[in-house]
Amino acid sequence: MERIKEAVERARTLRAGEPVKAAADAPSAPQQLERNIQYSDTQILPTDNRKLRSNKLITGIEDERVRSAFKMLRTQVEQRMGANDWNACVVTCPTAIEEEAKTTIATNLAISLAWSMHRTVLLIDLNLRNPSVHKRFGVKDAPGVIDYLVNDVPVKDLLFNPGIDRMTVLPAGTASVQSSELLSSPKMGHLVRELKARYEDRLIIFDLPPILTSDDAMAFTPNADCSLLVIEDGETSQDALLESIHVLDEEGFLGVCLNGAVVD
Amino acid sequence: MESTVQEGNEFREYLGVVARRKTQGFIAALIILIIATGLALFLPAVYRSQAIILIEQQEIPSDFVRSTVTSFADQRIQVISQRVMTSGNLTQIIDKYDLYVEERERDPLEVILAEMREDIRMEMISADVVDPTSGRAREATIAFSLAYENESPALAQKVANEVVTLFLNENLRSRTEMAEETSSFLNEEANKLEAQVNDLEQKLADFKEANVERLPELLDRNYNVLDRTEQELASVRAEIGSLKERRIYLESQLAQVPPYESAYGEDGRRVLTPTDRLRQLETELVAAKARYGASHPDVKRLQNEVNALQAETGAVPDVAMYITLIEEVASELKVLQEKYSEEHPEVAQKRRELEGLRMDLAVAEAAAASGSTEIVENPNNPAYIQLKAQLEGTRSELESAYERRANLEAKITDFESRLAESAGVERQYRSLLRQYETALAKFQEFSAKRVEADVSESLEREQKGERFTLIEPPMLPEEPAKPNRWAIFLIGVVLSLGGGAGTVGVAEALDDKVRGRRGVLRLAGQAPIGVIPPLDARGRVQRQSSGLGKILIALAVLIAVGLTAVHLLFMPLDVLWFAVLRKLGIWSV
Predict the structure, then answer these.
(1) What's the ipTM?
(2) φ, ψ for residue B539 (rounded to 5)?
(3) 0.90 cut: is pTM over it?
């Protein structure tokens, strides 16, 4: 695993420049981030499997069908991102219909990616109006992005480890009505750039609100390298699907993830 | 290989569609089926009472009597139908039998009448016949049926009866009416023509009368007559000529014969009859006139004597004598004129004498011409008498000949004018004759037709013509004609299947959702990069409820409903069961 990491880094160095240097030049906050990758200050104990299962996390689901489904998704995502040297992916959906599925898939994708042992994963919940990721992990309230953006809470204090190796979660934070503006604020953009640059072999998964219903979700997408669209079988309208694809940047569009379909 | 896989996929997709929409489909099918069953069971029965009326051909062959009622049977039936199903008639029937009670409360009259007209069904029954005149196959209406539908069988029959009666009566009435009209029309025409003919006959007769001799038929005869008449005239003229000669001859003979036989006196001398004396005196008178002139007393004395004797004897001065004397005197005068001059007294005297004689001659001729023959009293000379008689006879013959000639001449003139006028008369006559003949021919033609029409009229009256015969009177219906419950149910089944399928199809078509991998592939252009099975609230994979249970339940319901329907509408199930067994040869009862 380490060897691969090194190889990738070397390749990156050859191509990009001085990532290590950048890391060194970064202010102290990134340093703290770095540390946080390995472990977090606020450790969250994983709850029992039943809870996890009812939150639809594959950590709690043993059904091989589900796991392999996510494995396949993960493989696809990894391949494409690796082929293009992308490390930040947005998971979104057309409308509120698919919102729950989107969060499920974003979370499980992150977990799956973490399990693959190739990379580390950072899952960021950008549902600023309706924070949901932390709930999946059984956490009631957790500070997050909003708190950083509004109150300048240091990021290292916001990350938490969900008890899964190589995975960190940055929750959305305290729900805020101003979420729209926050998403498209320059500070947000800056944060993303920072997080991206910090660890280049770290994959960042953004759980973005439905793109058809909020402009800023759409406005945010250029911050990431690629996007994944989640739709619900039999629920998503064809128009919504088409519109979403149309809206998302073609180049960075990984594909559609179909939720709730019968796997043959 | 690929195509079968593809087909298999497509088929699976359809199955998927059906499976997904099965609920909707079943619901739709069930609703339709329930409605159909309801209708099949609860629609009120309608009974129909039907009568069949045969259109019978004319009994008496149409060569003998041709009917004047000439429209086609279909046409007539339609016309009768219109006449029968008037608002008046129908309203009467409705009132009589108290029909359409409910409808009368809420619907206007026209609607009810329309409904009644619908309930009265008239159908033509035709057959293929060979047209006797042209030999071609043709469809002819040979009968028609009249039926009335109602919820009550008894009413259906009664009203049907009424309608049939109305029909038959109307048919009869209209046929006789038509025949009557025809014959009355012909009558009128024939009468007019007859008057015309009579009028022309009269004219012709008058004309003939007025031009009776100039008629062209008489032309030849007239010519002949003219010829003959002219011949006759010629012969009469000849006769007249010869008669005249004879008269002159006889007159001259008579003049020479004394009327009396000479009577001798005692002295032996012939006694002079007064006539003789007269002659003597006349001669003396003439000489005296010449010598002395007319005014001499002796001459006057002689003249008186002569006159007296003339009166006595009635003798006519002797013309011949005067003529002779005139000749003598004329010759004497000539001699004198040669001898002496004109002024010589002897010449003058002679001239006087001559003139006097000429005057006397004129008088004598006049007297002679007046036809009075000498009245000789008691002539006793037989020769004289005979001659006289012959003369008289000749004179009278001459008279009659003159008459005949005049007659003939008149006749000729007359006939000539007739002939002249004949040509014009002929033209007029022929034209009149033609008019008359034409009118007569027309009249005869119409007369013949009138006779025919009269016969045809009686044909209708006695119903020997084409007639409607009720061969099947309206019966009391035992079974309802409508609705066909079984058919309604079956149709309902079919419709429910169709409706179910249709609902599924429509719902599917209206569906705008993304479905399955294919959906994504079709829309996004690429297959989904991830397919996650559906998780229930507990995070377990949702079992695809195969819906088999539902299908079974639905099927069971359908079968139950179906069997119930069959039992109620068609045949009781146990009967049906045994019938089927029998059919299959299993049960031989």
Answers:
(1) 0.79
(2) 85, 10
(3) no
